[in-house]
Design goal:
single chain, alpha+beta, three-stranded antiparallel sheet, 18 helices
Length: 610
């Protein structure tokens, strides 16, 4: 049996090596064929000129006609776009202006072509150059619009990046039009290969790589977008220029290898792929900035914010779909896969994913708005959260987990998987875990009832069994308390028998003073009343005072001394500063009026103490 397995592995290795040798031989033969074709460039050039002459034109005349129609199309496009898109116009107006200008420019170019003495292949050539010229301008303006959205970057750096990138795109589009012209006029493979690889492919890729590396910091800034930004977005921004350069080099090598093997990659497909990969993060940053501004603007509805956030995910889906349509369709056709069924399933999955993303965005927007309102309601960082603000993290977590689970099950159903056994298995598994983890269940159930009873909220100071501090975090099974001295305690709900909340409704502070027996109690009452009036006149402390400081009279008589009390009522958590103010004022009033404070006598056996 081992011998059979060894024989099978050996045959697999042999077949892999044989296939690799065939590819190498095909590459070598293809390279030799390209070198041979280069040797016949002179003859192919003469043949091209003969074809132009047979078509009733010459190279010089055709070039002049191309210059005329391209200048007309470009001039009409720039004029119409400037007329349609006024300064300060919105995004949709600029988009409409660009599309309208493109349509009018193509019509103007076709009209200019009709006025020229061109026939046959010359007409198709001129129309090709008109369309390519207009598409180049549309692409350049689209790139400029995407790059200039980033406010933290300097305008000069963005203008320099847009200029260099426009040159690279323009040269690439010129190359595509030039190669299309050579194919129309029947240019030989050697001439097309030489001009396409040396003058077009290598030059275009060199321009793109030089642009990316020269403006790598600017590109990183545009990908990162405006603050706040996520951690993964910052990391992607730092490595994005290197990723783009690597992708361009890999695409260049792949294109040349494919051409040598006799299966050249379409130039338009390669350029479109480069543009998609290059612009997707910038478009995502643009949409993210718009979504963040909408999130902060209360006038934008929740649905509007959610749609903008969902647009980020939708753009990613569209880009992946476009790349799949460009590259996967030929591969699927070669393997005999039915594109209709594959496209249908992919569309269903994409729709489910976008719907789940929209629900996720709606939930995130609602919870974000609640948290914003809760933070605005807080007078400072020490003010406790509202009840809804406390429950927001838990509701958000449960809701998002539910959306992911439903989306996953919906995708399985769409591809024909029976999910009921999976649901049943998970239910039985969860029930088994519940019986085996009674402590965990006790913690979760206890926490649920504590939250339903509104026993505590984020930011409140509470004391439980063995721990006390400010509530910093509330999870499904435990609460995290921050002690005033710094330590953090995580207390499971099941271990909490009693909660004492020091941050609810009000805080009563009572102060006791031991005075001499002959003290004028009426004078003390008046002094306390005066201090209470000064407290209400204090602009910093008055908003936190619910009942001002006042005397409660004689509370007790101990060892020939009077115990006089005073009290005030403050907002919870605010009594410390008021207490310090009152004690300082009482100390000063006693000194100014000659009121003597008697210390509390020591207790215990003096002999033992000695």
């Amino acid at each position: 049996m081992a011998e059979g397995a060894s024989t099978s592995v050996s045959s697999d290795v042999t077949s892999i090596l044989s296939g690799f040798e065939q590819v190498v031989e095909q590459f070598v033969s293809g390279f030799e064929a390209r070198m041979t074709a280069f040797g016949g460039i002179g003859q192919e050039t003469d043949a091209l000129f003969s074809a132009l002459a047979a078509g009733g034109t010459s190279a010089t005349a055709l070039i002049l006609q191309i210059l005329v129609v391209t200048l007309v199309a470009a001039g009409v496009f720039l004029f119409c776009r400037r007329r349609f898109a006024r300064a300060g116009a919105g995004v949709w107006r600029r988009l409409f202006a660009t599309l309208a200008a493109a349509f009018i420019a193509i019509v103007a170019g076709v009209v200019a072509q009709r006025l020229l003495p061109a026939e046959g292949l010359a007409v198709r050539t001129l129309r090709t150059w008109v369309v390519v010229t207009v598409l180049s301008l549309v692409a350049i303006f689209a790139v400029r619009a995407l790059l200039t959205h980033s406010k933290p970057l300097k305008v000069g750096r963005l203008a320099s990046l847009a200029r260099d990138l426009s040159i690279a795109i323009g040269w690439s589009m010129f190359g595509l039009a030039f190669m299309a012209t050579l194919r129309l006029w029947g240019a030989g493979p050697g001439l097309r290969d030489a001009l396409g690889s040396v003058l077009i492919t290598f030059t275009a890729f060199a321009l793109f790589i030089w642009t990316v590396w020269r403006h790598r910091r600017t590109l990183a800034g545009t990908v990162a977008g405006s603050k706040p930004r996520s951690r993964w977005q910052g990391r992607l921004a730092r490595i994005w220029p290197a990723m783009v350069v690597g992708f361009l080099l890999a695409t260049l090598v792949s294109a040349e290898v494919a051409l040598t093997l006799g299966v050249p990659l379409p130039g338009a497909t390669v350029l479109l792929t480069i543009v998609i990969v290059f612009l997707t993060p910038h478009l995502d940053a643009l949409i993210a900035s718009s979504a963040n501004r909408a999130m902060e603007a209360q006038r934008v509805s929740i649905i509007g914010v959610a749609l903008r956030q969902t647009a980020r995910f939708a753009v990613l889906i569209v880009m992946i779909t476009m790349l799949g349509a460009i590259w996967a369709s030929p591969l699927a056709t070669g393997f005999g896969i039915k594109l209709r069924s594959l496209t249908s399933e992919a569309l269903h999955i994409a729709l489910i994913a976008i719907a789940a993303s929209f629900l996720w965005s709606v939930l995130s927007t609602v919870m974000g708005r609640v948290q914003q309102g809760d933070k605005r309601a807080q007078t400072d960082m020490a003010t406790p959260r509202s009840r809804l603000g406390t429950l927001v993290p838990l509701i958000s977590g449960v809701g998002k987990a539910t959306i992911i689970a439903l989306a996953f099950l919906s995708i399985l159903v769409s591809v024909g998987v029976n999910v009921w056994p999976l649901i049943t298995g998970l239910s039985v598994f969860g029930l088994a875990i519940g019986f085996g983890s009674q402590t965990l269940v006790k913690d979760i159930v206890s926490g649920l009832f504590f939250l339903m009873d509104d026993a505590f909220r984020l930011g409140e100071y509470i004391e439980t069994s063995g721990a006390k501090g400010t509530v910093e975090k509330i999870s499904v099974r435990s609460v995290t308390l921050r002690n005033p001295r710094g330590p953090v305690a995580t207390v499971p709900y099941g271990q909490i028998s009693k909660i004492q909340n020091f941050s609810r409704d009000y805080a009563i502070e009572k102060l006791a003073f031991r005075l001499a027996f002959d003290t004028d109690i009426e004078l003390v009452r008046k002094l306390f009343k005066k201090i209470g009036q000064e407290l209400l006149e204090n602009p910093e402390l008055a908003p936190d005072v619910m009942e001002t400081f006042k005397s409660q009279g004689i509370a007790n008589v101990e060892d020939g001394t009077l115990v006089v009390r005073g009290k005030f009522v403050a907002k919870p958590g605010k009594q410390s500063m008021i207490r310090r103010f009152v004690l300082k004022a009482v100390h000063q009033a006693f000194r100014e009026n000659g009121i003597r404070v008697v210390p509390k006598p020591l207790t215990g056996d003096p002999v033992a103490a000695a």
